[in-house]
Automatic annotation (TrEMBL):
One of its GO terms (cellular component) is cytosol. It comes from the Eukaryota. Transmembrane segments: none annotated. PANTHER family: SCP2 STEROL-BINDING DOMAIN-CONTAINING PROTEIN 1 (PTHR10094:SF25), STEROL CARRIER PROTEIN 2 SCP-2 FAMILY PROTEIN (PTHR10094). Residues 12-111 form the SCP2 domain. InterPro entries: SCP2_sterol-bd_dom, SCP2_sterol-bd_dom_sf. This is Non-specific lipid-transfer protein.
Length: 121
């Protein structure tokens, strides 16, 4: 996945993580499709789109073909902070650091727990 975003490296790790037993458990536990619109500096500008498909256990670049369960928009730095557990997703949303479209119940399952821990990177 060609990208200048720091997030792309994490999503590349996520792809490998989904092939492990822990990744397969995630598929069974979450079973949702998330579209991530990640901007280098400002939400809505020069966004790169990734899909974390926890139904199929795949990570891809480009918009989801269909309707994702939830779509998130954030900056590269904020995505890294949320995925690594440094920023609480609810706080990020309240502060406007993250925007959500789609199912709120699906969005609530989008937690740092679904991402591989940095020690595994």
């Amino acid at each position: 996945m060609e990208s200048s975003l720091k997030s792309a490296a994490l999503l590349e790790q996520m792809k490998k993580h989904l092939e492990t037993d822990a990744g397969k458990e995630l598929k069974e536990k979450v079973g949702l499709v998330y579209q991530l619109n990640i901007a280098p500096k400002k939400i809505g500008f020069n966004e790169e789109i990734f899909v974390v498909d926890l139904k199929e256990g795949k990570v891809s670049k480009g918009p989801y073909d269909g309707k994702p369960d939830a779509t998130f928009s954030f900056t590269d730095d904020n995505f890294i902070s949320i995925a690594s557990g440094k920023m609480n997703p609810q706080i990020a949303f309240i502060r406007g650091n993250m925007k959500i479209k789609g199912s709120i119940s699906a969005a609530q399952k989008f937690t740092p727990d679904i991402f591989p821990k940095p020690s595994k990177l």
